[in-house]
Amino acid sequence: MKGRDWLLTGDGQHQACKSVRAWDLLRENYRLYRFLTEVEDVLNSGDDEVSCLPEIRMLVRRLIVNSYWVRSQNIEPSPKTGTSVLLLYDELGFPLTVQTVTFAPGTRSNIHNHGTWGIVAVLKGQEKNTFWRRTNSPEFQDKIEQTGELTLFPGDIISFTPDAIHCVEAVGDEPTVTFNIYGETDPNERFEFDPIKYSAKNF
Fold this sequence. Notes:
Helices cover 15% and strands 37% of the residues. It is α+β, with helices and mostly antiparallel strands and 203 residues long. The strands form 3 sheets. It has a 7-stranded mixed β-sheet, covered by helices on one side. The model has no long low-confidence stretch (mean pLDDT 95).
């Protein structure tokens, strides 16, 4: 599974990042529990979370390369919403969200940030990301403008800073399945944006 690595920041700019070759990541018996432990070790290293993103992207790629179980964990999207979320690990006090998300073809998310760092790896299908940024308008504090878009394919990984704003859409003829890992969300900093009303609300 080839793939590219990307980073989206709060200014709406995305940049290509160095990606580790898949054959350099091959491990025997590399499972989810080992991945979670290694992510925790990286986050506890003393560096700020955003500077940890390159190493966590590498760990995500290592997990995807080695774990058929993770690649196969998805459920059919809901007929009502067009999406489904499968939580892969849930423990009281554990600060990370680890899940797979399935989007039916044509399903589009709202425009949002995450209020924490995040990394998304495409497992199946195609996902179009549209990027936005706040305009810093004195009159409308929550006004945003579109800055670009990027379609991701299986093997592609994108990471986000807490203030990065995007929306996603499943494009193509098959559902899109992604592996997602997020840090601990600050609920006061996670927003859904309305580009018409120039408004943002917590969600």
